[in-house]
Amino acid sequence: MEVTTSPVRDPLITGRKTLHDITHDISYQVERKPTVSWLLALATSLGVLAIGLYAVWRTVWDGIGMWGNNKTVGWAWDITNFVWWVGIGHAGTLISAILLLFRQRWRNSINRAAEAMTIFAVICAAMFPILHTGRPWLALYWMFPLPNVFGSLWIDFNSPLVWDVFAISTYFTVSLVFWYIGLIPDFATIRDRAKGIVSRTIYGALSFGWTGGAKTWERYESISLILAGLATPLVLSVHTIVSFDFATSVIPGWHTTIFPPYFVAGAIFSGFAMVLTLMLITRRVYRLEDYITIQHIELMNIVIIVTGSIVGVAYLTELFMAWYSGVEYEQYAFLNRATGPYWWAYATMMTCNVVSPQLFWFKKIRTSIVATFVLSIVVNIGMWFERFVIIVTSLHRDYLPSSWVMFYPTLYDVGVYMFTFGLFFTLFFLFAKFFPVINMAEVKTILKSTSDNPAKHHKTEVGEKDVATQKI
Amino acid sequence: MIQEEKFQLTPSIRKKLLTYGGVGLGLLILGILFLIFGGQSHGAEAHAGSEGGHAEFHWYNRLFANLWINNVYFTGLAIIGVFFVAIQYVSQAGWSVLIKRIPEAFGAWLPYAGVLMLLVFLVGGHSIFHWTHSELYDESNPAYDPIIAGKRGFLNYPFFLIRMVAYFGLWYFLFRLIRKESLAEDVNGGVLHYRKMIKYSAIFVVIFAVTSSTSAWDWVLSIDTHWFSTMFGWYVFASWFVNGLAVVTLIVVILRENGYLMAINSNHLHDLGKFIFAFSIFWTYIWFGQFLLIYYANIPEETIYFVERLDSSYYSSIFFANLFMNFFFPFLVLMTRDSKRHTIFLKVACTVVIVGHWMDFYLMITPGTLGENGGFGLIEVGCALVYIAAFLLVVLTNLSKAPLVAKNHPLLQESIHHHT
To answer: Looking at the domain assignment, is residue A305 inside a domain?
Structure first.
């Protein structure tokens, strides 16, 4: 089997790397002693986590009355943060599954870290509905069909909130297994290189006795293929069902049929932005410029333009249809969004999500590290405001003008959000130190067909994962 | 290496197509005569469900509805051809180079589609679009409709016509730009034309991202004038797109069976099959998203669309057939690897999808135009045959004008040595 790569394509791996260089460059970060900057970063994350934990503690002990939610605005920062984190948790599986199906070889350098980020983001997301139940230890009864002694208490299968529980937990499980299986060969590499008994034992256990034999690789590929097949519908279903939380209702501003695909596009949009934020730092600190090249960054920025524009078309469609429908409640909901007391949130959303990604049309901007970093954060802010706008502005002026209110977050709203940030970065820094941040085995498979190493020809053996795709 | 090959539109193919067209026309006329003299077989009185239902039913209403279905359907095919080529360029896809001339040729239908659309609207728009009735806007008239009157800023003759001309103008202009570079590349080689095509394709994709939705609102959504759904633009796009993929695949398979495109192997077919499989699921996803949200929220203004289609004994059978042909059938048939690599499965699946999406547009357009006077008979078959013959004649003529393979495409070798 041969892969032909046209000379018009730029190499995906630069720096004239050999197979050994790949192993060394990536394993080295795991094997070396923790650096001072890493320790400082971890300490900061743990600090944020500790402060946030206090807010979580007060929320659980005193109840969700600690938050700024009120009787009109029953959902606010909690669900905003939940949807925001779930959205971020889309990029990893998109990269590992859907880009695999589309044979995008550039995914190999970024999939590991993106999948890790996905998993951590989903954990952070899960915190909000769990805390929002008030007494999470009782929540199992209305999330899962468990027998209970509370009379007729039984879960409501008609509720999209329950669908969410199943969709997200399934997605989380499959993403975790997919990510971990990809890690096994790399753990084995680190085990084989390990000098100390402790690391050899730990990485030996983590690698599940991986031998690297032909049979093991064959099984590895079969399971990767099955998981990619499972993950593809799952990644689309998760945000579809999150959008159902709103769209199945009859609330103007929430009930709109475009929500499912529009939420999915928004999720990919925000997920890629977060991948860029994290990868740009990791790339710099770990000197991975030859693996995560400017071309990788440019391609991710193109995904951002595409998904940002899809989201933009959806915003305009909603505005148009609100007017076109002739339903005055619908019309008012959008008028209020754009020009009411929350106009600033709406303007932030529009600027950050629709206008700012258009800057990536300029090649100079989409190949600039600084501009990409800044814009990736701008997009993350914009996507938070999108959820805030959808949730709070649709609720705060309900059908009865006497109950119209504003929402003001309390310190505990901020604190719980900080808690998830602390959790996310703590997990990510631990991952970046102790796990190989790039999938060595998969990067090696594309080395021959797409590197600038003159010793290699363009025609070479096909990659391991590429073999897997054929069977789909 | 590939030697230069050119598709020959032989007199016998041309004759065959003209015969199909002639037979179609005959059936159409026969169908109309039956309708005029034979009396209605079903439900001539019960047409309360349709938006235009207050008007008396005439045979030409059915003719115009059919012309409109085919206009929208074949315009979609033409523009999806251009769109398919454009996304190959913006995504720098290599595998599809060998087949790209086929979707590229679809664009040649655009000017004909534009003229037909304009003519049918000017002549028969009154039968198709309820909102064109002036009494709806007259407050003193008992037929005054405040909701439709509220949409007047968008739904009015001049603006509608301007939009229609603008869509076709923009689409055709960008198609010509892409096509010009494509042909110049055959002569000159190099990567300059390739880079230019990426640029034009990106511009086209941006324009199409907006106009695919707005044209769907104009040409299809506004038929059921009261009804609205934000998903609708993407629904029409999904239907157009998977149908375009199926037609491209079918033509590739047939060309290959006739000795053309010998560099195409089962790997390319496999990819085309995967596309049809994936986008059949995508269409179903969009369909289901729209249906479920409307069903679940149960707001009468919105559910009426599905009530009209499900409560009618005639349309409900088409409603379920639509799901079967466009989801279950391609989903099950194209699920295995082998079926995507064998031409017989592809031919069967593509045919069902192509007919299925015609039925999809039928189901979008007919209830709102004809209500319970809708039917399926000689008129439908004949009219579709005429369009098929005309579309193929235009597209195949265009295909025969350029080499069948873009021989200087910088990614050609990737496509020739393509493995899935």
So the answer is: yes
Distance CA A304, CA A273 (A): 7
What does the pLDDT read at residue B417? 86
Give me the domain span that covers residue A57: 19-450
Residue of B nearest to A306 (CA): B206
**Interatomic CA distance for residues A311 and A330, integer angstroms:** 19
Average pLDDT value for residue range B27-54? 66
Structural domain includes residue B6: no
CA B391 to chain centre: 12
Number of domains into which chain B is organized:
1
Chain B residue at shortest CA distance from A241: B289
B288: which residues sit within 8 A by CB, 6+ positions away? Answer: none
> What confidence score (pLDDT) does residue A139 get?
80
Q: A335-343 long-range CB contacts below 8 Å, 24 or more apart?
A: A336/A393, A336/A397, A337/A253, A337/A389, A337/A393, A337/A394, A340/A393, A340/A397, A341/A396, A341/A406, A342/A389, A342/A392, A342/A393, A342/A396
Reported as a pLDDT band with limits 50, 70 and 90, residue B310 is very high
B286 chain-A contacts, CB cut-off 8 A = 261
What tokens were used for B223?
Answer: 């038929």
CB contact under 8 A, B297 and A255: yes
Asked if the Cβ–Cβ distance from A6 to B410 is below 8 Å, we say yes
Note the pLDDT of residue A26.
Answer: 86
Which residue out of A242, A257, A363 would a mutagenesis test of the B interface target, given it has the greatest number of B Cβ atoms within 10 Å?
Answer: A257
- Which residue in A5, A250, A313 is closest to B213 by CB distance? A313
User: B412 lies in which domain range?
Assistant: 11-416
Name the closest residue on chain B to residue A331, using Cα atoms.
B150
Examine residue B1 and state whether it is found in any structural domain, yes or no. Answer: no
Q: What angle do CA B7, B279, B344 make, to 5 degrees?
A: 50
Say how far apart CA B193 and CA B201 lie, in whole Å.
12
Domain assignment present for residue A457? The answer is no
DSSP H or E stretch at residue B182: helix B157-188
Is residue B73 domain-resident?
Answer: yes
* pTM given for the model: 0.92
**Nearest Cβ partner for A6 among B94, B234, B297:** B94
DSSP-based three-state secondary structure for B326: helix
Give the chain B residue whose CA is nearest to the CA of A323: B151
Classify residue A412: in a domain, yes or no.
yes
What are the DSSP calls for A337-351, one per residue? Answer: HHHSTTHHHHHHHHI
pLDDT at B44: 43
Q: Is the pLDDT assigned to residue B296 strictly greater than 80?
A: yes
Band (A252; pLDDT cuts 50, 70, 90): very high
pLDDT tens for residues A349-389?
Answer: 999 999 999 999 999 999 999 999 999 999 999 999 999 99
Q: For the domain that residue A157 is a member of, what is the CATH number?
A: 1.20.1630.10
A261:B286 CB<8 A: yes
Q: Across the interface, which of A248, A255, A261 has its CB nearest the CB of B234?
A: A261
Given a cut of 70, is residue A472 above it in pLDDT?
no
Is residue A456 assigned to a domain?
A: no
**Cβ of B299 and A250 within 8 Å?**
yes
Note the pLDDT tens digit of each residue in A440-466.
888 888 888 877 766 544 444 444 444
Closest listed residue to residue B243, CA positions, set B365, B326, B168: B326
The answer, for A7 touching chain B at a CB cutoff of 8 Å, is yes
In chain A, the number of structural domains is 1
Cβ-Cβ contacts under 8 Å for A12 (sequence gap 6 or more): A105, A106, A108, A109, A293, A295, A296, A446, A450, A451
Q: B6 — phi, psi (to 5°)? A: -130, 140
**Per-residue model confidence as pLDDT tens digits over A198-221:** 999 999 999 998 998 999 999 998
